[in-house]
Design brief:
Blueprint lengths: L22 H23 L3 H12 L1 H4 L28 H21 L10 E6 L2 E7 L16 H14 L6 E6 L13 H18 L7 E6 L18 E6 L8 H4 L38
Parallel strand pairs: 3-4
Antiparallel strand pairs: 1-2, 2-5, 3-5
Amino acid sequence: MSNNRPIIVIKKKGGHAAHHGGAWKVAFADFITALMALFLVLWLVGQSKKVKEAVAGHFRNPPGILDGSRSGLLPGNEGVNEAIQPKEDSPVSFEDEMAKLERSADRLQQVFGEMDAFTSIRNQIQIRMTPEGLEIQLTEKAKKVLFEVGSAHPVQDTKDVLIQIAKEIGKISNRAMIAGHTDRRPYSDERHYSNWELSSDRANGARRVLVENGMKPEQIARVVGYADTHLLNETDPYADANRRITILVLPLNEGRKPSALLGGSSEKKSSPIIPETQHEGDPETPKKEAPATGKTSSH
């Protein structure tokens, strides 16, 4: 009978182990933070330089970015610090501006002095610093003209020189004045086209080449023709060197003053600071411009 006893199974419910704690939450939070940082880096890599500088400036100087009610880092917002995006009219010292122009002059001197393409015309290029700014002057020779005879169309060598000037000056925001000059030989025809029109048209022709090859239109402060009123070689009014184009690059602040645009910026003589190419008829007259009475042509 003992073999017919029912089998009794006793099940014991196991108790839960002690609480695991919140260590996994810390690890998970670290993982999410790292993932968010990764996405932020990937986003920044695809942004423009302007946005990258704005974000960097925000972390360098948050109070400057979030000053007052202005906020935001993306283009179009007003919250970008002025230190990151300086205003165009922020004060710049005259000495710093002249030093910047002198560096541009050095680079142009190097280009024209070392490149074989300018061998035939380099002695007609004069680059120097004046009290008004950086002066670049192209002069003619009897057998090496800058423009086609009696016209405002520059020859290829002249274009090549102007292209290099445009590339260099186009890198900065300084404004420039362009002046055309002739010798004293009378130029007239049935249309009463005189040296005034010729010098103005040649200055404008130079402007056109400069703007087409690197200089911004707003960098042109003035285009003027002086005919034979500003002779380079006063002892010989008919000298070939009197036919020339002058480009005066102004310091940034000076370029916005009316006196500079009207030709009354200085009465001092131009003293070379940077070594210049030597040729006959070096200027000895003051660089102050006389009021132009010639007609400026747009042709």
